[in-house]
Design a protein that fits this description.
Layout (H helix, E strand, L loop, with lengths): L20 H14 L3 H16 L5 H13 L4 H44 L3 H29 L7 H15 L5 H18 L1 H5 L2 H8 L23 H26 L4 H15 L4 H15 L5 H12 L8 H13 L7 H33 L4 H30 L14 H16 L4 H17 L4
Length: about 475
């Protein structure tokens, strides 16, 4: 594979490349520790830092990559980080960006999972999670605002995109249509739309905003009109090499597990099950979780349903993709099955968590490193970008439905008795409103908002008000 390039290749004639591999590495490491808020919040962080502040990549190139990642199974935010890292600094840039997006969360979750299984319960999590949930709801609202303002123009200018977004919202929020069908419907609409009303898709906010704001923003290092770097051009030989290395990286650990435990061993089955989860599930963490619950809890019995819920709570309190809850599943499963014996419970559980994480995320790297050159070759071609623009418009509606889902669950006390008004959690609603104001109106940092909300939630719980 390629070796890391110490600096960004010459990309834009008006910009001197100044982003070294080390500078990018520092950013990806910091992102791994601050990427709270699920995929919507994580994408919002990358957009703000990479597109608006650092100007490492333009709006159009960012959304073009995001659209591709939305089509893939697996965590789209982690795949987007991998894509941008690869585009800037070749294969090792993508590997470093994607790995650092995951590793901090993995280590934190292993530590929290050990506290959970060794000492029984995590009473402080409930209070902090009570405050974090309103913050997450506000982050999703911020993502709707950011992505909608960039992708959707005025309804009179691009009514088809608004229609796609509205129909997607209704399909997910009210009709429970599976996410893959929403993506497929949007892609087909975009393909037809570029033939019937091409101007609406060619002038979509996401793909034209960089030029529209050329007078107010300095050019990006990877701009809309930047030629595709040499390493990002499609070559059959490179594709074959990536696929061969990927197959080897899957076969070697799986062969070791089979030689050690056999096919029916707990860790071997974890590797195979989470490979299927990575390949067969679309729509992000919330689409994957029912599949993981069905397999890990009901079929294999690696943990109980209540433990799975506790794992979700822990996953919400850590940075990184929410699907990192699989590390908790692996840890608890490895602990309960004593995969290294009763005298090495922690080491066995940590090993299971690492194995599960490896097999869950390996396909995501391969999707980007193998498919990235194909995607780059389609940049600016309406036949390809129109369906992706339509998918982005659909995603705005899907994220809006997620925001509604969070707000309803934050505001409504499940299982509470009494009138409808008495079931409303006004404290959580106030926290959600304040967090949204802090993010949208006062532009406070994500970490600051989450930390303050977590402490406020803990204080409310301790005072008996939450």
């Amino acid at each position: 594979m390629d070796t890391p390039n110490p600096s960004v290749i010459p990309l834009h004639p008006q910009v001197t490349p100044v982003v070294s591999f080390l500078e990018a590495l520092k950013f990806w490491l910091r992102l791994g520790f601050i990427s709270f808020g699920g995929p919507a919040g994580q994408i919002a962080i990358m957009h703000r830092e990479l597109v608006e502040e650092k100007r490492w990549i333009s709006e159009g190139r960012f959304l073009h990559a995001l659209n591709y990642c939305m089509l893939l199974p697996g965590p789209e935010a982690q795949q987007l980080a991998t894509y941008i890292g690869w585009l800037m600094h070749r294969t090792w840039g993508g590997v470093v960006a994607g790995a650092l997006f995951v590793l901090p969360s993995l280590f934190i979750l292993i530590g929290l999972s050990w506290i959970y299984v060794a000492f029984g319960g995590v009473p402080w999590v409930a209070g902090m999670l009570y405050g974090i949930k309103p913050a997450v709801a506000a982050l999703v609202l911020q993502a709707v605002h950011r992505m909608g303002s960039k992708t959707l123009k005025k309804p009179s200018v691009a009514p088809v995109l608004w229609m796609i977004s509205a129909i997607s919202f209704i399909a997910v929020a009210l009709l429970n249509v599976p996410f893959p069908w929403v993506v497929l419907g949007a892609a087909l609409t975009g393909w037809l739309g570029q033939r019937l009303v091409p101007r609406q898709f060619a002038s979509a906010g996401g793909h034209g905003s960089a030029r529209a704001h050329a007078g107010t923003h300095r050019p990006a290092l990877i701009d809309d009109d930047t030629p595709t770097p040499a390493h990002a051009r499609f070559k059959k030989s490179r594709l074959a090499k990536v696929l061969a290395v990927g197959a080897l990286l899957w076969l070697l650990p799986m062969s070791v597990l089979m030689a050690w435990q056999g096919w029916s061993g707990a860790v071997t089955q974890m590797g195979w099950f989470f490979t299927k989860a990575a390949l067969l599930t679309f729509g992000g963490a919330y689409a994957v979780l029912p599949y993981v619950y069905q397999g890990a809890v009901e079929h294999f019995g690696w943990l109980s349903g209540l433990q799975m819920m506790d794992g979700l709570a822990l996953g919400e309190t850590t940075p990184g993709p929410l699907i990192m809850v699989v590390a908790f599943v692996g840890f608890v499963g490895g602990w309960s099955r004593q995969v290294l014996g009763p005298d090495a419970l922690f080491l066995g559980a940590a090993l299971a968590a690492v194995v599960v994480t490896w097999f869950t995320f390996l396909p995501s790297f391969l999707f980007i490193l193998a498919g990235g050159p194909v995607v780059e070759s389609t940049h600016g071609k309406l036949q390809f970008t129109a369906p992706l623009t339509a998918i982005t418009a659909a995603v705005v509606g899907v994220i809006a439905s997620l925001a509604l889902f969070f707000i309803v669950h934050v505001a409504y006390r499940a299982g509470a008795e009494g009138s409808f008004v008495s079931k409303i959690d006004f404290g959580a609603l106030i926290l959600t409103t304040l967090a949204a104001l802090a993010l949208l109106r006062y532009k406070l940092g994500v970490v600051t908002v989450i930390a303050v909300c977590a402490l406020a939630g803990l204080a409310l719980r301790l005072a008996g008000l939450g």
